[in-house]
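Annotators were shown the component list below and the corresponding predicted structure, then asked to write short factual statements about the assembly.
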Amino acid sequence: MSPDVMISANGLTKQFGAARALDNVSFEVERGEVVGFLGPNGAGKSTTMRILTCFIAPTSGTAQVQGCDVFEDPLGVRRSLGYLPQRAPLYGDMSVLEYLKFASEIRGMDQGAFKKRLTNVIDVCGLAQVLPRQISHLSHGYRQRVGLGQALIHDPPILILDEPTSDLDPNEKAEVLKYIREIGKDRTILLSTHNLSEVEEACARAIIVSKGKVVADGGIDEIRGRSGGVSYVVAIAEQSCERGAAPKSAEVSEALSALKGVKKLRELPSDEQAHRFELTGEHSEDLRAELFRAVVAKGWTMLELRRDALSLDTVFRDLTRNDERLDRGRTAPEDEQEPSSEEKG
Amino acid sequence: MSPMTTIAKREFRSYFDSPLAYVVMCLTFLLLGLAVFFYRGGFWQIDRASLQLLFEYTPVGLSLLVIPVVTMRLLAEEKRSGTLEMLITLPVSDSDVILGKYLGALGLVLTLVLATAIYPLAMFGFPWNLGALDDGPVWAGYLGLVLFSAAGVAIGLLVSALTESQSVAFFITFFVLLLAWFAQAAGGQLSGSLGGALDFVCFQSRLDGFSRGLIDTRDVVFFLSITVVALVMSFRALERRKWS
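Structure shown to annotators:
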């Protein structure tokens, strides 16, 4: 195993009675990666994270965190990582400061080290205002931040965050994601969610699990490409420009379909001023540069060009389609929301 | 500070963050005072410089009120609210968690037990001097109470480790301690080996000697064994989450 592999799971299987929560899950996370761990509810995300943090043991298979085996050295594993369980379960009867102190004491940090880290944690997680307040009086967003702070207090090289953004309103969500990006600059992070836009925002790589199995593992763009194509939307201005006559819809269509790599072309409804087309390209190849050059060569005015962000959503649904009814409602009802409702083009 | 002491300290402190500890303490002292001094004439009726009544009633109060209330939430509440996951995924071993929680709860119970020392101090020292107290049985009585509390809290912790509901934990602990206390009274009606067995596990008869100043190794070993067995079983119960 290369020294840069921080988390490695090998053939993790977990059986809960007759139900198989995890089925031969293997993956590796390298130093400095921020990896999104995606899947519908009940797919095995939390189970995997609980195994990685030695809260439960796998039925078979094993895992290493920074070289420490979950069976042989669970304390070593826990020392090298910070963990935020789902819904940030904290002791409500303690104040934020007391809680952070408690976590640092259990981790064997002395007063000086704690004070030093505290300033940093307060800064990164935005806790300055709530430090003396009792945790049970905080909003969920703040609790989530305290949970993050607790996970960061010993400056761990690895962070495991289980649905850090569930239960949060959009503002809080954005804020927590901002903190995660900040923290992720110099750490390895494994972050679970069922919300695709979050992965796109915070992670470079995603592992998708469905029904206890890894169904996709790779860069975001790579996974996006697996739907059999990437779609682009191009809009060309209708009125004439300096170098030529006003383009006709058919001309544009012809020019675009002539491009190498374009598989499908479809005209989209638009206002009167533009011709809009949707193109489907060969998997992960990026056609945007080609498109731009082609349009410029014709002397047309490009009003819009984008890759369709929704396609990751499509891939996700494709990959986890059979999961729909499985274990729904076992965790949280608010998870029912359609991810697409939060996506923007 | 080791993780175990940190957990114990937090546990002990958290009792005072809620009104629970205060309510239980006040109630215990009120009831104990009434029982010792006024129930069937109480201390005055006996008319001797003896604290035997104190050592008779305190364990009942501990069994039926203090220990079930203090231990009910130890692990049950942590499991229900999910904070157990947060606690255990810190670098602590399961035994740290069990012993830390145990010592935290035992600390509170012993604080209460030691606070009853106000009685002998006030009654036979300052400000009243009701007579010459034979302090041998008092020391022995307190040793008995400490051992009894150790065993009772361990049982409560075990029950709390087996359920996710505080109220269920309360009632089970309550009934287990109730049965253990009155086992002999029940056993008295029975003859043969069952009666003998009930007599053997009875907390009341085990404590009897202590309050009369008699420290029997068998009784000491009895309470210590119960403590150790209950703690080991709690540890196993906590560990079971890994494999279920």
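Statements collected:
1. The interface with chain A takes residues 1, 3, 6-7, 10, 14, 17-18, 81-83, 85-86, 88-93, 241-244 of chain B (CB under 8 Å).
2. Chain B has a mean pLDDT of 89.
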